[in-house]
Amino acid sequence: MTDKNALIQPDRGQKAIPLHLVDKEGLADFLKGRPAPQRAALAAQKFEAEPNSHAIVAEGDEWAVVAGVARTDVLSSWCMARLAEVLPAGTYRREGGDPGAAAFGWITGQYRFDRYRSDAPDEGPRVLLSRDAKAIEPITAEAGAVELVRDLVNTPAEDMGPAQLEAEAEALAKAFKAEVRVARGDVLEREFPMVHMVGRAAGRAHAPRMIELEWGDPAHPRVAIVGKGVCFDSGGLDIKPSSGMLLMKKDMGGAAHALALARLIISRALPVRLHMLVPAVENAVSGNAFRPGDVLRSRAGISVEIGNTDAEGRLVLGDALARAGEGKPDLTLDFATLTGAARVAVGPDLPALFAREDATARALLEAGEAHDDPCWRLPLYGGYREYLKSDIADINNAHTNGFAGASVAALFLDCFVPKDSDWAHFDTFAWRPVAKPGRPKGGDALGLRAAWHMLGQRYG
């Protein structure tokens, strides 16, 4: 894989292939200023400045690229990503301005998951120059966080189980002198009983655990980041059909988001006291799997009747959110590939956002819009709490009427977050079913950049 840190370099006047960005409104003026051979070449290639289109023209003894974008005054993260995917290896310079936000897509457009490929092409990097040297490190870190999510989600479950998630947290702690605590075995059963019950059927090879990482000055505001780490979801005894299991390696996408966001917070030295929690399990089938109708204890003291063993993510998150709340955080964010209902409601591109505080929701939505990571708020409507009623326990983990599935799942989580806490929940897909410029098919970060920039505005 190409080193992302080499893809954006300071512009020191080195030789580079010119990149001319043009939008439809400015195309006529651009053509007036070009020599006749270039105008002819653009006409021959039917260049009309459509976004994601480009043409090659001669420029002196060399060649240059003319590329269409939606707007030249405000560049999106993705407006140059297609160029990074298709242009020959080399060094490029945007003429008439800096790449700005487009540098992000330039990096992510060159992402390849080739861990298991014996025929991975070695095309060499496309390097983009930036006159704003101070902007390189932040945007490279952000792109690296997104690519970490992609790597973790794309990795099959046999190589990305609970132990591997623990190893990722340990590597992060070692690199930045953070503290890691891991509860397993009897300790896990005692302190995080729902995590233990969901994961115990996977056996020793993929044994469940609760991973906690802490970093930062205790005097700074405490921020808890929680990620659902179901490394594979068979559905348990309410087993999924085979077609429903094909993408279940991605059910730890919430944990991938939490690890990537933690890396961003730590590497960029955001002045917070970070508490990251990842309940890591595999929802497997065996003789000791938890059953429909069982009643589970929880860390919060709430008893939970199991209406569906395939609604396991909310169980492990319940214990994690209860633990996070014990530290009295200023803000708690959780990420989870939680419900198919969220995908029905808002599709694969938009994480469903739930938040108790309007100001927090607004800040997350605005940060997402500003940084090309849009989210969509869905309601935490209290009237649907009745759907969680149980005849024999405090609550049930699944309702049967099929209504408002994403909201009901969020309301289940809400039961485990202290009532006075500022909390937001992302029900994210963590997957791109169709490739787009800068966003290949496969695992992806959805909601990560919105959360990161919101945190930067709030605490930075």
TrEMBL record:
What InterPro entries is this protein classified in?
A: Leucine_aapep/pepB (IPR011356), Macro_dom-like (IPR043472), Peptidase_M17_C (IPR000819), Peptidase_M17_N_1 (IPR048816)
GO molecular-function terms, A-Z: aminopeptidase activity
Residue ranges of every copy of the Cytosol aminopeptidase domain listed in the record: 308-315
Q: Which domain of life is it from?
A: Bacteria
Keywords, sorted A to Z: Aminopeptidase, Hydrolase, Manganese, Protease
Q: Does the keyword Protease apply?
A: yes
The UniProt record lists the keyword Protease? yes
Family the entry assigns: Belongs to the peptidase M17 family.
Q: What is the official name of this protein in its record? A: Leucyl aminopeptidase family protein
